[in-house]
Amino acid sequence: MKTKTTPRKxxxxxxxxxxxxxxxxxxxxxxxxxEHVQSIAKAxxxxxxxxxSLILLDNRLPDGFGIDFLTFVKKEYPSVKVxxxxxxxxxxxxxxxxxGADAFLRKPFTKAQLNQAVTExxxxxxxxxxxx
Length: 132
Hints:
The protein is of the alpha/beta class. The chain contains five helices and seven strands; from the N terminus they run E-H-E-H-E-E-E-H-E-H-E-H. It has a domain at 36-124: Rossmann fold, CATH 3.40.50.2300.
């Protein structure tokens, strides 16, 4: 029987189409199963059906603030890693981390910053044991 590694699911919650497309390209190229929604309501629907390993969460969404949704995600899905993304609120970083965000990226961020945050969080999720 062959073992096939299933790609890790990543959910992007952001209402900026261009950013979602860019994140999809960057993360999809790393063998991840990337989907995106543009509102908190759609994210709640998604989470009822799927369990992502990682959520990239924008703070300002059409139907609320990501920081508020973050509390819900961490309560209902404690094993899901969350990277909070914000370009507007300087104070959002402290609040996001206090509310349970695993990492914070301030817009605009670089490909290297994104890769570092994603790699660190997903490697922490599934520790790799090296052969002796």
